[in-house]
Specification:
The chain has about 80 residues and is α+β, with helices and mostly antiparallel strands. The chain has three helices and three strands. The model has no long low-confidence stretch (mean pLDDT about 85).
């Protein structure tokens, strides 16, 4: 069973509790020995997004070319 750390002990030993949670330990803080909250590690590793990885997406080589005059006229109204 997971140990429940009371609020006063959590205040006094917060750095140690954070280190335990970072190491993957289950840290539970409670009031009157009843679990109230769980201290957990945040996974900060975010996957890097790569442009053009969608299989149905294709970008033409001239995607940044100027629009033809008739298309520009439609945008201008």
């Amino acid at each position: 069973m997971t140990e429940v750390v009371n609020v006063q002990d959590a205040k006094a030993h917060l750095s140690q509790l954070i280190a335990r949670a970072e190491a993957g330990e289950d840290v539970v803080i409670g009031r009157a020995h009843k679990p109230a909250v769980r201290l957990v590690r945040i996974d900060t590793a975010t996957p890097r997004r790569t442009f053009g990885t969608m299989p149905s997406l294709s970008v033409p080589s001239d995607f940044d070319a100027p629009l033809p005059d008739d298309d520009l006229a439609e945008w201008d109204g």
